[in-house]
Amino acid sequence: MRCTKIRTEQFEFNIKKIDNWILNIDKIKSGKFIRDELKVGNTPIVRLENIDTNNLELYAKIEWLNPFGSIKDRAAYWMIKIAEDKGILNKNKTVIEPTSGNMGIALACISMSLGYKFTAVVPQAVSEETKNLIRLLGAELLETSDDLCPRVGKGTDQCIALAKGIVNSFPNDYFMPNQYENEANFLAHYNGTGPEIFNQMNGNIDYFITGIGTGGTVTGVGAYLKERKDVKIIAAQPQPNHHIQGLRNLQESDKPAILSKRFHVIDDILTISDEEAFRAVRLIAEKEKLLVGPSSGAVLAAALKLEEKGLKGKAVLIFADDALKYSSVYRQFKVLDEETLRSLEELISLQKVN
Predict the structure, then answer these.
(1) How far, in Å, CA of 68 to CA of 18, rounded?
(2) What span, in angstroms and rounded, lies between the C-alpha atoms of 206 and 321?
């Protein structure tokens, strides 16, 4: 892949915006983050004006402007709050969750800001930046030799099995939100992300495009939008044996319960290769000066496939997180230039989060 330098004033501005959630993590570590600051959602939608499309108007919902840097903040908050309200979770319990990355960071931050201990069970293949952030927060990190995205159903991997085994052995000591089955994951998007998108677009939306992970985003937003107009719901899934953290290939894993329950809201699933996703990451950086994570690249790649089919209208894309946790992945696959990668690494270094 060609690595193009993208240093501009707008790029520098977006680097600073990325820094916001890192500062929140620093507040949690130092005990300065207060419960009243914990507000998720209401993230902006921006028009992707510089990516050439003849028929589709592309809009991106910028989810790394959630307090801890990703769309997973939404479901994490809802799962914890509902568990508290039902009396399932109390201060005597440690929150534990199998995760491929962003949910681990979100739950670590939210749990600890509310006074709970947290344990993340992650596949070894998760980026080192993600694992380091979870450790820096003081959370316990357990690693298993699994695929990048924890599998569900037949052949459930060690990641989920280990977390469930710990909870079953010590039910009075641990609470597992279980993003793969917890209805709060769906509700976070049905009651939050979906209404936000519909209102921000004034109802003028024809396509909603997001990646497949647990299924909470695609079914929650999809169900909300379809109740109001004929919006086509498009899901991007990665190739088998992929390197796109947070997304799931449905040939490699059964559908999580959250996805299976409302799978019918999805109109089409587009398979995106690593190369297509990384090429789109670079395109977003060059054209829009936004530094996005691999799943956002996969979502744009899916949108460009729709454009190739001649589809017309307004499409809203989920940009789930930024590039901050993926400098090692982007260096491995030569996605971004070295100067940009060093800037990202400076932000996430121990000197920045201390």
Answers:
(1) 10
(2) 23
- Given 72, 226, 289, 305, which residue is catalytic? 72
Q: Please, how many CA atoms are within 13 Å of residue 78, restricted to the half-sphere of its CB?
A: 21
Q: Which amino acid is at 53?
A: T
Domain 9-65+193-348 grouped into CATH 3.40.50.1100 = yes
Examine the residue annotation and report whether 30 is marked as an active-site residue of this protein. no
First to last CA, the chain: 35
Q: Tell me the two tokens of residue 108.
A: 């670590």
Is CATH 3.40.50.2300 correct for 72-175? Answer: no
Q: Is 295 in the active site?
A: yes
Please give the chain's pLDDT, 354 residues, in tens. Answer: 444 444 445 555 465 566 678 888 888 888 888 777 788 999 999 999 999 888 899 999 999 999 999 999 999 999 999 999 999 999 999 999 998 889 999 999 999 889 999 999 988 888 888 898 899 888 999 998 766 566 654 444 678 889 999 999 999 999 999 999 999 999 999 999 999 999 999 999 999 999 999 999 999 999 999 999 999 999 999 999 899 998 999 988 889 999 999 999 999 999 999 999 999 999 999 999 999 999 999 999 999 999 999 999 999 999 999 999 999 999 999 999 998 898 888 877 743 444
> What CA–CA distance (Å, rounded) separates 18 from 30?
20
Considering the candidates 100, 295, 327, 343, report the single residue annotated as catalytic: 295
Predicted TM-score of the model (pTM): 0.92
User: Is there a contact between 328 and 129 (Cβ–Cβ < 8 Å)?
Assistant: yes
Q: Could you give the CA distance from residue 295 to residue 51 in angstroms, rounded to a whole number?
A: 18
